[in-house]
Amino acid sequence: MIDCEGVAGGPxxxxxxxxxxxxxxxxxxxxxxxxxxxxxxxxxxEGVPGGTALPGTPCNDCDPTTFNDIYDPNCVCSGVxxxxxAFQTAGLxxxxxxxxxxxxxxxxxxxxxDGKVIVSGRxxxxxxxxxxxxxxxxxxxxxxxxxxxxxxxxxxxxTSLxxxxDGKVIVSGEYTAYNGTxxxxxxxxxxxxSLDPSFNPGTGFGPGPTxxxxxxxxGKVLVxxxxxxxxxxxxxxLVRLNSxxxLxxxxxIGLGFDFPFPSTVxxxxxxxxxxxx
Length: 277
Description:
Helix content is 2%, strand content 35%. By secondary structure, it is mostly beta strands. It contains one helix and 19 strands. The chain has one helix at 86-90; strands spanning 26-30, 36-39, 66-71, 77-81, 106-111, 117-121, 125-126, 129-130, 134-137, 153-163, 169-178, 181-182, 186-189, 205-215, 221-230, 233-234, 238-241, 266-267, 275-276. It has three domains: 1-39, no CATH class; 50-90, no CATH class; 106-276. The longest helix is centred in the first third of the chain and has 5 residues, at 86-90.
């Protein structure tokens, strides 16, 4: 007869003592299927009567290479090892590989229908390639070299993005030019990354940056920020521009907001001259 340890005629039979390797259990015995199991401590897995540290609840196995640590049925705290398929369990997609990624903050993204993503922020490079404050990535995480931004934005950062159905994107931020052409804090890029000359804001916004953007169904765009003028006209903190980037005079909020400036804007369908956010 083979015992529970594989020894012919051995003494390790069901019902005999064993060691289940769990320091938190006592009276370890082989069961009828030769599995070594001990008796859990009185109370929860930490020995606390009526405690909450029960099998299946979170714990900390003190191993930095694991995640999702829980107590198993024997009150052993263990996690899933990081690596291999564990990345997918944790939600990280290994097929999206940006290499060394961005060299500074990438704060805003716009996902295209084809899976490509436009990213803006404070960065000046992506995976070792110069990209001033805006870039487009392929669905694999690699840089899309067909998105030709030239020298990109001149300034501190580009912030919000508003992606149009035709693939063009409006970009706000704290900048003064795009690829060598003057654009003060608002610009629209073609689907290939070049500047759209049909969206001409004149002298643009000042003195502070633009931030929040909201694209309306009719092509007009709401722009929020820290400014008191647009193209020479007094406008405070929030304006609406026509699809050509000219000022929409029918939308006027007077002296605007107290600080801080609006960080989010969204169009409403109740009235073309109302907003919420």
